[in-house]
Amino acid sequence: MLTSKPKNKIKRMLPGDEPEEAPKLRRGARAAIAESLPSALPQPKWVRLIREDVERLPEEARVKNIKQLRKLLRRAILIEHTTIPPYLCALYSLQEGTNQESAEVIKSVLVEEMLHWILAANVLNAIGGEPCVNEPRFIPSYPSNLLDLLNTKTDTGVTSLKELLKVDALSASNGKQSNGSTDAIEVGLLRFSEEAIDTFLEIETPVPVGGESSGNPTIGTFYKILIHGLETLEAEAHAKGKTIFTKDPERRKRQITPEHYYGSGGKAVVVTDLHTARKALKEIIFQGEGFDPRFFEKDISIGDYDEIGHFYRFNQIKQGRYYEEGDTPETGPRGATLRVDWDEVYQMKPNPTLKDYRHDPDLRAKGKAFNQGYMNLLDKMQKAFTGQPDALQEAVVYMFELKYLAGELLKNPIGAGELAAGPIFGYLGKTK
Question: I need a surface site. Which of 53, 68, 202, 417 has the fewest CB within 10 A?
Answer without folding.
Answer: 417
